[in-house]
Design brief:
- It contains four helices and eight strands, in the order E-E-H-H-H-E-E-E-E-E-E-H.
- By secondary structure, the protein is of the alpha+beta class.
- The strands form two sheets. A six-stranded antiparallel sheet has the order 3-4-5-6-7-8, with helices on both faces. Strands 1-2 form a two-stranded antiparallel ribbon.
- The protein is globular, with a radius of gyration of 17 Å.
């Protein structure tokens, strides 16, 4: 697998007994309830990878290995640098303003004049987003236990990282 060379020590296709229980709000205003138990076979086709915050940080670091000198098999390099650059390149634009585009397994999102490579994930009761700027060597991963997408929180953190302040303002 790619998880070992990438330094991802806990990632797998099923939750561990120590993982949190997902929470769902079936419809707005309904009481929040625990999500159904994970069905490993139902999620295999779309990935369904469970990973810790530390594993996601390692995964984002690997996404920054995009130079021509980055060769698969060198340390944590899972793919050649030019291959990663190709995956991070937009292939289909979602809107004419080019705020969102799709690449190979990754999307590209532009906000505040900066382009980020992103990947989202969801399972019953969980949401996640990872944003990375390989050229700057920075990334953000936000994991949420619930039905709400954490995209705006990730963007807020990304803005703080890019500004160099490291301070997140609550709006």
């Amino acid at each position: 697998t790619v998880t070992g060379p990438a330094g991802m020590t806990t990632a797998g296709f099923a939750p561990s007994p120590h993982d949190a229980t997902g929470r769902l709000e079936p419809r707005p205003g309904d009481p929040v309830r625990p999500a159904s138990p994970h069905d490993e076979l139902a999620h295999r086709g779309d990935g369904g990878l469970w990973a810790s915050a530390a594993d996601l940080a390692a995964w984002l670091a690997v996404q920054c290995r995009v130079t021509d000198a980055d060769r698969r098999g060198d340390g944590d390099r899972v793919l050649h640098g030019p291959t990663l650059r190709s995956m991070h390149r937009p292939l289909a634009f979602v809107d004419p303003a080019w705020t969102l585009a799709q690449g190979l397994g990754w999307a590209m999102e532009r906000f505040d004049g900066a382009t980020w490579v992103r990947h989202t994930g969801s399972m019953d009761g969980f949401r996640s987003i990872a944003l990375v700027r390989p050229s700057d060597g920075i990334g953000v991963a936000v994991l949420a236990n619930g039905s709400v997408r954490p995209n705006e929180l990730a963007r807020t953190i990304a803005r703080a990282l890019l500004s160099g302040s490291g301070r997140v303002r609550s709006e």
